[in-house]
Q: What sequence folds into this?
């Protein structure tokens, strides 16, 4: 029984020389622990949907990543988080945007998918829905992270919108998290969660909660989760584009991912990357930035990496 999992914790100008060894070790540990937990779930016969939800919840709970606890701050110094999920088997999808008190936005996205007739719910309505199904709402202080706060302080009186937490110099980083999985039944699923961009306008919505942009899954082609400059990813409809190149043009997953990330996105200066799995459980991780927090596991191979 073949099962496959890939996860990411964002892409960007992530360079070894700029990262303390302890910080590198902390990221690698968080990625490896998440990978093992969700892969074990798949091994025990768990569904691709359960695996991507679990992986993303663990990354949301880890303050190192820009999602859930540790999410970046908007221009008003608040958290506004986005998440989305898609089931490759049924084509069902769910997403939330601009939530401020949800511990695990990805679980709320799943609840939108499974418990409402809708796909995408935002802001107060999403939080009211969470309350109505008994999902705990956290005090806003739960999401506070000193590191993020100090980064925001550097930007707060500027118009600079920074792609995630690394605001020094021209260093850019995208710390969104995501997961894609292929389960023992041959089903695919994808999930993405983010705090968005540092110092973003209140109400700004990026690509991460958009089905077909940062998240897409279809058992006939692939499962995708993206990270990168949201505005450009939206205009390029990245995840669905990869599906279409496979479905209508007959490209392999590798060809489609390379074409979109290393040609189309590069042409429009769309920095970022993605993780993907095709209907046979083959994994691709492609990014056009110097680094990407990433990990993957199949029966034959396991890898955890940050730099190119
Ligand atoms: N794509 C996210 C956004 O624009 C940022 C990221 O990937 O880190 O909101």
A:
């Amino acid at each position: 029984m073949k099962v496959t999992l890939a996860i990411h914790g964002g892409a960007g100008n992530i360079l070894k020389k700029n990262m303390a060894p302890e910080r590198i070790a902390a990221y690698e540990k968080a990625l490896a622990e998440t990978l093992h937990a969700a892969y074990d779930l798949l091994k025990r016969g768990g569904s691709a949907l359960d695996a991507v939800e679990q992986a993303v919840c663990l990354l949301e709970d880890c303050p190192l990543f820009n999602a859930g606890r540790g999410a970046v701050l908007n221009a008003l110094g608040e958290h506004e988080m986005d998440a989305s999920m898609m089931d490759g088997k049924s084509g069902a999808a769910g997403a939330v945007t601009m939530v401020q008190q949800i511990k695990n936005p990805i679980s709320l996205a799943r609840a939108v998918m499974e418990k409402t007739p809708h796909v995408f719910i935002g802001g107060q309505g999403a939080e009211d829905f969470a309350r109505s199904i008994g999902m705990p709402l956290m005090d806003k202080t739960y999401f506070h992270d000193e590191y993020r706060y100090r980064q925001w302080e550097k930007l707060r009186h500027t118009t600079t919108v920074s792609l995630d937490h690394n605001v020094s110099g021209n260093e850019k980083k995208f710390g969104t998290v995501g997961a894609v999985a292929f389960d023992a039944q041959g089903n695919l699923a994808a999930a993405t969660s983010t705090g968005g961009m540092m110092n973003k306008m209140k109400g700004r919505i990026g690509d991460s909660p958009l089905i077909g942009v940062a998240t897409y899954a279809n058992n006939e082609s692939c499962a995708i989760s993206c990270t990168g400059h949201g505005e450009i990813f939206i205009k390029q409809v990245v995840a669905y584009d990869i599906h279409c190149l496979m479905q209508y043009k007959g490209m392999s997953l590798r060809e489609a991912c390379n074409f979109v990330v290393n040609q189309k996105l590069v042409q429009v200066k769309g920095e970022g990357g993605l993780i993907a799995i095709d209907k046979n459980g083959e994994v691709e991780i492609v990014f056009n930035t110097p680094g990407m927090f990433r990990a993957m596991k199949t029966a034959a191979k396991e890898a955890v990496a940050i730099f190119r």
User: Anything to note?
Assistant: Residues 26 and 64 are 8 Å apart (CA to CA). The first strand starts at residue 4 and ends at 12.
